[in-house]
Amino acid sequence: MQEKIVLITGAKGGLGTDITKAFLDSGAIVVGVSRSIQQIDFSPLNFAAYPADISQPQATRELVAKVIAKYGRIDVLVHVMGGFAAGKIHETDDETWTRMRDLNLSSAFYIAREVIPHMRAAGGGRLIAIGSLAAVEPHAGIGAYVATKTALTALYRTIALENSDKNITANVILPGTMDTPTNRADMPNADPSKWVQPADVAKVVLLLAGDAGAQINGAQIPISRE
Q1: Which of helix, strand or coil describes residue 31?
Q2: What b/e sequence results for 101-132 when a residue is b if at least 16 CB atoms lie within 10 Å of its CB, and e otherwise?
Q3: Domains of the chain: total
């Protein structure tokens, strides 16, 4: 990954931090994106913070334009941004549905739509999204989350089909419950020994982004310890 330009959405907090650190350690130039990210969040010189709200189309266009203007290309897009909300379908209000749609699906669509033309012009690229095991094993009580994560998976499989002619791959990683501070706080009675370690997910992301992942396209990759 030495000198590769890697754009990571949701780069700060939980899984995003582990993935960002993994790419920084690999020698990549990391463009970290979130609404609140700052340059001081990561110390390496190969990190650049780009605050942006990619749930909004214009903000996403401006973000990608800035990155291309500075670096000339984007070799890898890692879409980590997402959100979670519980609630049965008939109990889900408009605000929750809109938030799940924007965090889990619209943001993925907007950033991919802006990045793909540059990858096609360059003749290659990698897109990797963090989905959820719930996309293939739905659970009751988290309907909006399941629906939007399932749609994310379909979006990336379609991207894979549409861009294989230009040496572009698109894959989705489907983790089970991850061992993050937020999940530990939200589920104090659960057994975290059965949860997925963020560092393990980061290893799979690196594999898909590197030479070893060149022939993997359109995959849904589950990661679970349960």
Answers
A1: strand
A2: bbbbbbbbbbbbebbbebbbeeeebbbbbbbb
A3: 1
Looking at the predicted structure, is the pLDDT value of residue 226 above 70?
A: no
Write out pLDDT tens, residues 33-85: 999 999 999 988 999 999 999 999 999 999 999 999 999 999 999 999 999 99
Nearest partner of 198 among 130, 100, 107, judged by Cα: 130
Handedness of CA 57, 5, 38, 10 (dihedral sign): positive
Residue 56's CATH number: 3.40.50.720
- Domain of residue 116 covers 5-223
- Tokens 């802006």, residue located: 114
Cα separation of 214 and 142, whole Å? Answer: 34
Query: Mind listing the pLDDT tens digit for each residue in 156-196?
Result: 999 999 999 999 999 999 998 888 878 788 788 888 888 88
Determine what percent of the chain is predicted with pLDDT higher than 90. 83
CA 81 from chain centre, in angstroms, equals 5
> Do 205 and 24 contact (CB within 8 A), yes or no?
no
pLDDT at site 9 = 98
Q: What is the DSSP letter of 25?
A: H
